[in-house]
Amino acid sequence: MAKHAYSRRDLAFQLHEVLRVEELTRFPYFQDHDRGSIDLVLDTAGRFADTLLRPLLAALDRQEPQLVDGTIRLHPGVGPVVRRFGADGWISALFPYAEGGQQMPHAVYNAAVFAMQATNYSASVPPFLTLGAANLLRSFAAPELAAAFTPPMYAGRWQGTMALTEPDAGSSLSDITTSAEPTAEGYYKIRGQKIYISSGDHDACDNVVHLMLAKIKGSPAGAKGISLFVVPRQRVAQGLPKGTETPADLVGNDVVTAGIYHKLGCKGAPIAHLMMGGRDDCHGYLVGEPNKGLGYMFQMMNEARLAVGVSAAAIGTAAYHAALEYARARPQGRPVASRDVAKPQVPIIGHADVKRMLLFQKATMEGALGLLLHCSYYMDLAQAAEGPERENAALLLDLLMPIAKTYPSEMGVLSTSAAIQVHGGAGYTTDFPVEQFFREARIHPIHEGTTGIQGLDLLGRKITQHGGKAVGLLLAEMQAAIAAAGAHPELAPLAAQLGKAVATLQQVTGHLLGVAAHDHELFLADATLYLELAGLVAVAWQWLRQATVAQGALPAAHPDDQNFYRGKLMAAQYFYEYELVKAPGLAKRLQSANAVTVDMQAEWF
């Protein structure tokens, strides 16, 4: 693995110089987090990653989980790491002091998570899944139910999951068949099966707590009849747990691990096939009100979508730094203008095409990180601000979520592929880590809502919600970035190009909304391409923000920082010259009357 999996300097730049995250301390909830404490969080995350996660990177990939005697067995190094996540406060860090949390801003927390996942994504999956499940319980469950399950989850002793998918109901959750039957004792009897449940069973914790969707018998059909339940793998003999149970205090809850899926990558986090209620003795505890489960689960799903973007950017960034280190060290060939074989070979980083591939990785991944941290900042405002500031932040976050999930996911696959290409034949071997990064990156365009689903969400819902208010807010943010760049004549070409791209996106949006009025299928047929166009514009916006800060800081910067800022400015140029130039082609396709994907018939393939 490369000496560095990410740039600590870039995290500081993004948080302190671009976002100015310390300004969140104006809100009482975040008032204890100054620049010193924020830097301490990042440094602590870096040490955690280097000492605990880095040594397991290849080992978790080579030693796959195995289903043994009904339990999934993981590499023995996973258990201590998961418990350290809990003991060191990472699982509960976002929560209030009263709940044992640190009231940490999401922007800071996600920067720390990014550092960990760039170092070893696979090992970080179980605790951060637990975070989402615990937050769902503390948000919607009755106080006694949340108090029963969240303490051991915060401590890293119990794993949390989201159990949605079924054999005949993947993304179409309206079709789930898992059932729940009320009992006189207050719990429900759960029957059914769930598949592809991440960390759905393993021996690195004492218990697994499933947040499971099911339908109470007699409930309305479709999504309106879905309820949410806590379904632990093991339960206490009587009533709810008190949070102090040891494994000896727990009994089986009729949740059987029927199988394990052997994944392409991310092998340290197993996915399980679960069967519930085979002995008619699976207890589930209702979260909130009946038939409102899908709405509750959307909180965890939305959080998970932003987390997927962070994970994807982290893996793509690790691949970039591995490629960068290799390119600096690997001698091959000579400059095309001087091929004197008597002269020594040059490191491949001196070749323009290699620099192109490295710039592609840098521009896409650092641009994606900027978008993700900006969305995290909106999340903080939506939590801590009041009035219009809070409302506007929530609207912007909701609008940007499909882009923040998808752009890093899709470009992460291409970025890791470019890292392999930089390595040449070496990249196709297990002797170098980039082939593992390539495999691990491929899941992100799939889980927590595929790219196609995110496109439908953006174009079919988010654009028109609230009378298009969120779109107006985003356009205002982009125009503000263009205006700020105007203070630097060097950035005028980029500012003008972003202005044209924003106008193009507006034109395409208006055209498609016109199509929707008479042909809804055609309107959404290329929603994925619309999402791609929106992603290009959103990341170009982020790069203009970063370039403006870099250009302003450059004259007075220390020589080392000058190199950093010049790298930022060149990456911004690359993005506009090589990536944003794709926008007109996408716009042309999106406004074409040709309906080939709609008109094509299944029999013609």
Describe the protein in words.
By secondary structure, this protein is α+β, with helices and mostly antiparallel strands. Among the domains are: 142-291, Beta Barrel (Butyryl-CoA Dehydrogenase, subunit A, domain 2); 451-595. Helices cover 54% and strands 11% of the residues. The chain is built from 18 helices and twelve strands. Strands 4-5-12-7-6 form a five-stranded mixed barrel. Strand 1 (66-68) and strand 2 form a beta hairpin.
- The percent range for strand residues is 5-15%
End-to-end CA span: 44 Å
- Shape, per Cα inertia axes: globular
Secondary-structure content class:
alpha+beta
How much helicity do the residues have? 40-55%
Mean pLDDT: 95
**Any idea of the CATH class of the domain at 142-291?**
Mainly Beta
Number of strands: 12
Number of helices: 18
Q: Tell me the strand order in the biggest sheet.
A: 4-5-12-7-6
- The radius of gyration computed from the alpha-carbon positions, rounded to a whole number of angstroms, is 25 Å
CATH topology group of the domain at 142-291: Butyryl-CoA Dehydrogenase, subunit A, domain 2
**What CATH architecture of the domain at 142-291 would you give?**
Beta Barrel
Largest β-sheet summary:
5 strands, mixed, barrel
Spell the H/E element sequence: HHHEEHHHEEEEEEEEEEHHHHHHHHHHHH
Unreliable segments of 5+ consecutive residues = none
Show the helix and strand layout.
Elements (H helix, E strand, L loop, with lengths): L7 H12 L15 H19 L3 H6 L3 E3 L2 E3 L4 H10 L18 H35 L2 H12 L3 E6 L15 E4 L5 E11 L8 E10 L9 E7 L1 E3 L13 E3 L2 E7 L9 E6 L6 E5 L5 H37 L22 H33 L2 H37 L10 H8 L9 H12 L6 H17 L6 H25 L3 H6 L1 H27 L5 H21 L3 H8 L5 H4 L6
Parallel strand pairs: 3-6, 4-6
Antiparallel strand pairs: 1-2, 4-5, 5-11, 5-12, 6-7, 7-12, 8-9, 10-11
Helix pairs in contact: 1-2, 1-8, 2-5, 4-5, 5-6, 5-7, 5-8, 7-8, 7-9, 7-10, 8-9, 8-15, 8-16, 9-10, 9-11, 9-12, 9-15, 11-15, 12-13, 12-15, 13-15, 13-17, 15-16, 15-17
